[in-house]
Q: What sequence folds into this?
């Protein structure tokens, strides 16, 4: 075996990984912003890949500046755990140690507006990123994030 082999005696060393394309990420944040316009709110929208690295970002003029990082962190949280950020409160209610400890973690957002991005069920449903929106209520933010997913056939 040489240094360029991609297998070990027991199997492959690497696997193919699906990622969010730049085009899809751009369409998602644009659709989230468009939906915010119909709601009469100004938002920040972010898409990350499965590793939490920013893939796309769009800020509406007049959107809250503090919401820039919140939108990015919602996408990061959804990508890193694989479920909507809105589910955190019910999870934390069941476990005091988790409630006290996890909220100390940087970049964790425990309110709505972040959704995981998954391949379609026909493609195996693999987690490929997260979309986060901040600027409206948690429900409005999640609706905008869902519009982003729908724009690429994932919602």
A:
């Amino acid at each position: 075996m040489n240094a360029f082999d991609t297998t070990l005696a027991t199997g492959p060393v690497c696997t193919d990984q699906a990622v969010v394309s730049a085009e899809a990420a751009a369409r998602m944040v644009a659709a989230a912003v468009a939906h915010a316009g119909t709601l009469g709110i100004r938002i920040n929208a972010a898409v990350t890949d499965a590793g939490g690295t920013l893939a796309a970002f769009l800020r509406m003029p007049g959107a809250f500046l503090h919401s820039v990082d919140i939108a990015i962190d919602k996408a990061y949280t959804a990508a890193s755990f694989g479920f909507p950020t809105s589910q955190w409160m019910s999870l934390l209610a069941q476990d005091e140690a988790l409630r006290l400890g996890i909220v100390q973690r940087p970049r964790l957002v425990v309110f709505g507006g972040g959704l995981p991005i998954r391949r379609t069920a026909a493609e195996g449903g693999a987690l490929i990123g997260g979309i986060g929106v901040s600027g409206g209520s948690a429900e409005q933010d999640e609706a905008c994030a869902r519009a982003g997913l729908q724009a690429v056939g994932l919602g």
